[in-house]
Structures are given as C-alpha cells and as structure tokens.
Amino acid sequence: MNAVETFSVTRHAVDPRADGAARTVHVSAERVTIERVLKGVRMKLGVPVSAYRGLVLEVRQPTGHATLTLHHEDRELDVMLASGEAIQLARKARAWSHVLGQPVSIAEACVTMGVPAARRLTPLKPGRRSRFARRRKPGNQGLLANAFAGEREIIAPE
Fold first, then answer.
1. In which element (H, E) is residue 132 found?
2. Coil vs helix vs strand at 106
3. Mind listing the domains of the chain with CATH numbers?
4. Per-residue model confidence as pLDDT tens digits over 81-134
C-alpha cells in the first residue's frame, strides 16, 4: 500500500442543523464520511470522492485569506479542508488534488461583475442588409412565382 491509499484525515465542522451544531468529517482517498447527530439520531453518511465536483480554492481579495473546499452539488455535503493564506493554500490544493484525484478551481469571493453592454436590437438603417446577407445575391421573387405557376403540390394532402 502506498501513502495515498492509506490517507485519512478527520475534521470537525460546524453544522447548524445538527445537535450541538457540530459534525465530524472523515476524508480518505476513496470516500468522505460525515457523522452527526440530528434530533437524537446518530447519522453516518458515506459519499464516494468521485461524487464530488472538485476542489474550490476561494480567495478573499482584500485580506488574501482563502479557504479550500471539497465541492459537491449539494451544499450540505461540502467539506472545508483548510483555510489560511492564499499562497500557502495553493500548495495544499495541489497536494489534495493529487490525493483525491479531483480538479482544482479558483474562485474569488469579493468579485463584483460589471454591467454587460447593451445589445444592438435594430440596425441603424431599416432597409440595410446585414454583413452576411450582403454576401448573398438577393433573389427575385417574381421569377420564383412564375416558375411554379400552375404546378400541383405533391406533399400536402388534397
């Protein structure tokens, strides 16, 4: 057995819905096990690591503080693996990625997106053709009408 196969980490996390507002998370190379007590009932949930989308390194810009999270579609199953300075956490993210076989994505927590530019709804001149339509030769509707005059339509039922 190599070091990756025997890898296991236990974390204690805040869980507002659980009794005592705490849960215990065991992370191994193959599975994540979440233990908590909910209304007096002990629960133990095992989720394979392959069910997670990947690792998210979330950086808060002004402070440079960051958190590394194992991200799942269900936010209740997200696991915070580490927190600290962004540069140090980037190295840890590579190690976690190697052990868990998950990709790392970087997110900035305090980024505000700008307002998108307004789309052009109508051309400036109504009679003008678009750039692509100008490449094509305009058809003559009069010739088309005469070509099929008196013909019987074979597709539509009579």
1. helix 131-135
2. strand
3. 8-108 (2.30.29)
4. 999 988 888 889 999 999 999 888 888 765 544 566 776 666 566 677 777 777
Percent of the chain, pLDDT > 70? 74
pLDDT band at residue 41, thresholds of 50, 70 and 90? very high
Q: Which residues touch 62 (CB under 8 Å, ≥6 apart)?
A: 110
pLDDT exceeds 80 at position 44: yes
Alpha-carbon span 36 to 9, nearest angstrom: 17
Dihedrals φ, ψ of 13, to 5°? Answer: -130, 160
Neighbour-count burial of 65, counting CB atoms closer than 10 A to its CB (0-12 exposed, 13-18 middle, 19+ buried): middle
Task: Please name which of 49, 103, 101 lies closest in space to residue 79, comparing C-alpha atoms.
Answer: 49
pLDDT at residue 62, rounded to an integer: 76
Q: Is 58 helix (H, G, I), strand (E, B) or coil?
A: strand
Q: Which helix (H) or strand (E) holds 67?
A: strand 65-71
Q: Are 148 and 155 in contact (CB under 8 A)?
A: no
Number of alpha helices (DSSP H) and beta strands (DSSP E) in the chain? 3, 8
